[in-house]
């Protein structure tokens, strides 16, 4: 066997079953070795951002790393922006980045660049393999790192991939993710301060923590203390809908967020930082909480935040623990209750409350179209909601693809903006090829509406024609139906609630991907 | 005026007239300031790779920097792979990368990342502006650096953009590019060794050096000494066609290149490194010249290589200087001489010899389809030919866009592979919006043919189904006509020489962009 065989055997041994790939010449031995690594599914992306974003989506749904395969420094570079989102989501990812043969690097061939330096700003762990005999343990180390919610980047010199290695038994085994640490003092402080704060207390779940179990544990504390249950604006994954315990989302807009958070003077942070503005503005404060707010950091970002939250519950006075929280009741409007006619963000929100299927995964990059979705869909059928954690757009199509490959039994609904969707539209081709069950709604307002809003926020009252042309997506109008069909994905256009409803039903009934251009 | 106004005034003062942009919230003051900077044309790209690639194309045709405008670390990251190509082409580029306000960085908002660390592997110069009062001199420094054929990355904190600065007269002036240094000893050595080597000598022009004037100067030396005139496989820009002095291109394939170069024992390097293989292969040497070849480095990569070459000419014996080189005769096949029927790479090469219009700019990412184009088009109407210097694919559509904006009076012909074109297809929208006169031919072989070839080169004889699916672009077939129309670019499909000829004529006759999917 050669190094590439050894690397893939180590991935298989450590439970990696999916490799999102965009290979080049230096990765040909890896690709050839994939032929024999039958427990690993290779998925081709036509662009590296599709590859890394898919790995993020896969990780969010499985809590296990997929591998990526990327071609040298520039291939890695194309994948960085979605790695940024993965880093911010604490998604486990193992990147394998092919490099020139070790002896070839010094020749400075055209594709040579500083791969380690390129990986470092968007990886928790970077290693250039020292050679073919190290690859199996490199993989074990990378998987160990990734399982802690981190991005591991392993650089694979081509000669390490093609050199022969002895077949010497079972590859090294990666460590499991550690159990989240329960800080008894922090739990006791949280219990005491929430109890004292009453309605001025809140529990803020960020990152990967707002899963059903943790939300239930937090809701019990909230019921017992009078505290509010909050999630970060862009939590990586939230369990939502009927039967779940609802958390309020911290608003995106700075003024609204500051107003909302001003009612709290005690915040228990669960996988969250003290909330700050996404951007700075000349005349606004960057922190969102009131000065003097007390923060209690209960735990870091973990998929099992119920453990530290249960410790808070245990630390509450016996008397308080009698109160029981109420789960969200089912509140799915029937077809007859839906609004009609031309589409608005509010009507789309109502439609989603009606339409989200049970156990769906909603991948939300709707931005300005979607501000009303959160409150409208709290009583929808139970589902998981993924948010763009790092703010780098072009995220939803790749993440939806990876989530669908991770969960073939679930419907995935991608809520995409036309501006954001244009970053990585070729991702649709991978959906078509893999038959992923993704229904994409592209909200076509034909401008960077968020930037139009932000112009006002930064104090620019009048946007002239020259500046405005950097904010609008008309001239020419993007035809998403034509683009999607070109990539092999069935598509249609909807301009009314009725058309959206019919198109969505057709898309949902079919197996495989579909896209609806939702014209606003 | 605020810092952004000051920055744009400094760009205007230093002759920067084009800004390729993909802005976000942190760049809103820059965008607002563009309203008043009427000498700068803002061009919106829907993805940052389109932005940086366009700046590369613009630079190759003007030898002056365009500015880019990029949004934070992830926006920069999306532009890196085409910056890699620009770095390798010694293209002057000034990147302006918006950052959070300086006081906001420490809060670690979601879009925060290490921008300097991200820029460094793909920039010659990186600076975070110290504030609004430094911006005008930051720009002068960045333009000075760029004019030396370098990528300068200036990071613009949002508060530096929005803070007020005094209007204090004329901004600092950037230095012009220095005159290329003529190394008299190297010129004398080149003359002596070429004279001695006779037919075993060669002059290799790489990078930006193979312009008409330098090719003529080199051709005179070649005629006087018996040396051959060569260009690098992927020289940044080559003046070609009838009336120009033809250089032979070093072949891409390692075996062919080694065979070709084995006939030389003396190589004068003009803006070139000793030729090496693009990739390493298990059983091939990585250097392309024979062991013991003598290299004489005449000069670095410059747009005025005729100056050092003229010094070589002066150093030749008087007697040798009588011989005159012959320019390429016009050899344009008439329509009646063209092959007919279904398309092959050879037929397309013959068609291009017929079809390239006078003064065209050809942007060539045809890869496996295009190996025969070089020899077939040596007698075409005079034109400039741009090559992908850094090997990062997804290069041609953006570079063609920038070249067309730089040269509105010229036709730009983009020769694109279907695999490479899929990296940044949204670039077509910018072409449609700006009305760029670009005719794109997409060669649709529906696979990564180069990787199929490379599999054999790395010693894999049989590619199985599981590995093969990472090399093929069928299932589903990409419909480039539908994709292009979706982005607003007129498109048609050609399956024969006759159809290609008719479609190309229509595309050329129209103003604005057009695309032909050339099915192989």
From TrEMBL, chains A, B:
Residues 377-518 form the Thiamine pyrophosphate enzyme TPP-binding domain. NCBIfam families: PRK07586.1. This is Acetolactate synthase large subunit. It comes from Brevibacterium salitolerans. Belongs to the TPP enzyme family. CDD domains: TPP_BFDC, TPP_PYR_POX_like. Pfam families: TPP_enzyme_C, TPP_enzyme_N. Keywords: Thiamine pyrophosphate. The keyword Kinase does not apply. Residues 1-106 form the Thiamine pyrophosphate enzyme N-terminal TPP-binding domain. It comes from the Bacteria.
